[in-house]
Amino acid sequence: MNYYSEKLSSEKLKRVYEIATPRVQQYLDAEINHVIQKIHPTDLVLELGCGYGRIFPSLSKKSKSVFGIDTSFSSLQLGKEMFGNISNCFFAQMNAVQLAFPASTFDVVIGIQNGISAFHVNQPELIRESIRVTKPNGVVLFSSYSEKFWKFRLEWFQLQTEEGLLGEIDYEKTHDGKIVCKDGFTATTVSNQSFHELTADIKNTSVKTEEVDESSIFCEITKNFQ
User: Residue 104 and residue 138: Cα distance in Å, rounded?
Assistant: First the structure.
């Protein structure tokens, strides 16, 4: 089951961000601020797992065009209702490991807010496909959660449970960066070391990781000229 398509989409997904605590909102803002520093006015940007386009207004102001893909049709429909008036933003229903774009299309490809785990796809395939559609000298940005953010992340998920957005958290199985709910929802993380392991065998790239705001671990992959 794709939880974000079948259970946590559209207005429910929007509600997830509306109930964010001040510390979680700080984390969300820090992620956006980190991403937009990497974008130039002439850039074509692709956001993987864009949902309803929560960060589209920020991305659209910094780039030439923004393309957002998601597997949830209802989330994309909400995005079009909310942000359809932004002329340089476009939505499409698509799987992040089977992108319908030609090679070397985008200057920046983004998969933030732990999408690399939340998508529940093959992570090496996701990384390779993201690099495929990135132009030479372009960048791919993935983020996951820092261990330092665990307390605030768990509190946020508990709020989501209380709102009926997620099932009850199984606290016996929830630990070490992994959140498990009794309705089948799971959320894991990718560590700094894991990012390096996932990218170790990818040729013609430069990879660096960094912690942002003591809440995110960012992996930045630059596609080198061959």
Answer: 9
